[in-house]
Amino acid sequence: xxxxxxxxxxxxxxxxxxxxGYAAPAKPGKGEFKKARVALLVTRWNVEVVDALLxxxxxxxxxxxxxxxxxxxxxxxxxxxxPLAASALMKSGRYDAVVTLGAVIRGDxxxxxxxxxxxxxxxxxxxxxxxVPLGFGVLTVNTPQQATERTGPGRDNKGYEAAAxxxxxxxxxxxxxx
Length: 178
Known about the structure:
The protein is α/β, with parallel strands linked by helices.
């Protein structure tokens, strides 16, 4: 197996670095995710950004063939509260995956570091404890502009990517028969 490393190389049309070395997963087979049950867990802060992430995640679930009737949406007050809410969703046993969406934007105080760090740590722990795939779509950015740049209409929308990662993990867990 060849190890692929992610490097940052300049894009030919701009000076913005782009990630390379990513091997995209196999496209979903017909009906592969028809019965997959997915919880979308979103925050109430930075509403326009989070709504754009949610649109991206929903678009991905549709593209991958997840039935709308198997997708439920939940709201948490903020990113700090996501781990407890995700744990409850995972513990319920009703979902094959949980996709978390939010945006923590740096301000003038250390609040950003506490919220972003504890959010990511808590979500990772919940996923490991309950063995439920997690799509991590919580942006941690320096500016509102950076958040907006990550929520466009294409497949590079971070909500889309979080949902795709969750489904790819569902596929892997099913293959392992977990």
